[in-house]
Write a structure and sequence with these properties.
Elements lengths: L5 H21 L10 E5 L2 E7 L10 E9 L5 E2 L4 E9 L15 E5 L2 E10 L4 E11 L8 E9 L3 H12 L30 H32 L1
Antiparallel strand pairs: 1-2, 2-3, 3-4, 3-7, 5-8, 6-7, 8-9
Helix pairs in contact: 1-3
């Protein structure tokens, strides 16, 4: 097998470095938002989207809508469906009662018109089931259906701030003996609250390896390019 000439070898290294940089640039530095969920029941399909990025947070109101389609891809509007939306905590049991039953309204979004949607505020962090069921208002328009979607709810900003404030404030000391003249030393006052790691800090930490690799690729490409020109 013939060996590559120094100039050809340097050119190959430069090309590989450039391709690596392009791939690193095209890759997102942050975790992409979750894709819309799709479920099918009988002849009806449903696509769930929670505005704006399918990542609801506890205590924060979000708009959730379901694009319903019948066989053939035609949209089922809320005006054509007796639909009901319910929210359950997981694990959902057959006899579980919904914690929320939001009122549906017609929503226009992402090219859909008149699809069912509702404003929802998930109370706490955790896993939920968002279920939508419906019957046609016009007989034989489509089959009755029930679609269930899994939803993961993260901590809201207000909850994160409350947790940080609670951790920063030490518990107050209770005086049990009012006749004691010497002040008591509260050990908890000397304990500093642990630092709260925010999502931005975690995201920044995860970006450093990518940035280091990107910088290394640029340096290798530049050195190889200079070597080619000198030859």
């Amino acid at each position: 097998m013939p060996l590559l000439k120094p100039k050809s070898f340097a050119l190959a290294i430069a090309t590989a470095a450039i391709l690596f940089c392009l791939n690193a640039i095209s890759s997102p530095l942050s975790q992409p938002a979750a894709a819309h969920q799709v479920e099918i029941s009988n002849e009806v399909g449903g696509t769930l989207h929670i505005e704006p990025d399918d990542n609801p947070r506890a205590g924060e109101e979000v708009l959730a809508w379901v694009a319903l389609t019948r066989r053939g891809g035609e949209t089922i509007q809320l005006a054509e469906c007796d639909c009901q939306l319910t929210v359950y905590t997981q694990p959902r049991q057959p006899d579980s009662e919904p914690i929320l039953s939001p009122t549906l309204s017609a929503v226009a979004s992402e090219g859909y018109q008149g699809i069912p949607g509702a404003d929802i505020t998930f109370p706490t962090v955790g896993l939920y089931t968002l279920a939508i069921s419906g019957n046609p208002k016009q007989a034989d328009d489509f089959s009755p259906f029930e679609l269930a979607f899994d939803v993961t709810v993260a901590a809201g900003q207000s909850q994160s701030e409350s947790s940080a404030e609670s951790a920063a404030v030490p518990p107050s000391a209770e005086i049990t003996d009012p006749d004691t003249s010497a002040p008591e030393t509260v050990a908890s006052d000397a304990i500093e609250a642990p630092d709260t790691v925010t999502d931005d800090e975690v995201s920044d930490a995860g970006q450093w390896p990518i940035l280091i690799l990107l910088l290394g690729g640029v340096v290798i490409g530049a050195i190889s390019f200079l070597a080619i020109r000198q030859r």
